[in-house]
Amino acid sequence: xxxxxxxxxxxxxxxxxxxxxxxxxxxxxxxxxxxxxxxxxxxxxxxxxxxxxxxxxxxxxxxxxxxxxxxxxxxxxxxxxxxxxxxxxxxxxxxxxxxxxxxxxxxxxxxxxxxxxxxxxxxxxxxxxxxxxxxxxxxxxxxxxxxxxxxxxxxxxxxxxxxxxxxxxxxxxxxxxxxxxxxxxxxxxxxxxxxxxxxxxxxxxxxxxxxxxxxxxxxxxxxxxxxxxxxxxxxxxxxxxxxxxxxxxxxxxxxxxxxxxxxxxxxxxxxxxxxxxxxxxxxxxxxxxxxxxxxxxxxxxxxxxxxxxxxxxxxxxxxxxxxxxxxxxxxxxxxxxxx
Length: 339
Fold this sequence. Notes:
The protein has 10 helices and 15 strands. The chain starts with a strand and ends in a 9-residue tail after the last strand. The protein is of the alpha/beta class. The longest helix is centred in the C-terminal third of the chain and has 20 residues, at 306-325. The strands form 2 sheets. The chain has a 9-stranded mixed β-sheet. A 6-stranded parallel β-sheet has the order 3-2-1-4-5-6, with helices on both faces. It folds into 2 domains: 2-114, NAD(P)-binding Rossmann-like Domain (Rossmann fold, 3-Layer(aba) Sandwich), CATH 3.40.50.720; 122-279 and 305-330, 2-Layer Sandwich (Dihydrodipicolinate Reductase, domain 2). Strand 2 (26-31), helix 2 and strand 3 form a beta-alpha-beta unit. Helix 5 packs antiparallel against helix 10 and helix 7 crosses helix 10. Helices cover 34% and strands 25% of the residues. It is globular.
């Protein structure tokens, strides 16, 4: 299978490395945005060809699959070029910064009949794979409460939206809430602009799900990645509690007490000493790309379809409206993916 990558920045190299390490994939081309030297250097390093025009690369190399990594504001144009070419593609979040553009991309991918995925790579970390397994096997039971906290990151430079980080960083959280909780029906929240710049960089939300479950969502870029405990996700169900920490480092399952087991012990997974791969956040994208390629080769459904990027964007925009206007926003979502 021939793969091409659009994007030569840090996360672009994560995709490039993932394809390059895969023995069943030929890296057919790398396309930069504005930095010619960086694109040529990357192409030389990975023994492939450099381009500065997406359409030209697609026409000349005819790849089977394309990963597209671009600055958030450029997602729509870059994604549309690849989708219109009718090539299976794996896109980065956010799907777009504008809801109408995101919906257009999903409709176009559907009309073209292509396999189009969105890289919510957190779900390929060991803690979330274990959580999904416990949910599928009924060890959590009916979920009634979900908690999300992600309070580190980078300030939203260059973004016009006053709560832009809800669309790029926190899209992982909304996708995780939707994956394990189902449809979100309403969102209420509050936001704070600590610098007085018009960017509300810290916010909290209350969510209601179609199932009746509720959720709490804490989102900020005012802490630092060096701080402990900036990332966590929890499910509480009728049979037990599941919690993931720092994406890759720890997973804990706590069964509820019962007559047969009044003092159950928690079961904990942590990244083993010699398991370097499990501690590398970038390798979650390796796993997603492998799953995407396997699905393409075997005719299986797309692991995380592009529609999930649309639903995360819808939730992020609804949360922004709720916080800025101090009201409860009703959210009507179409069919979403799940575990």
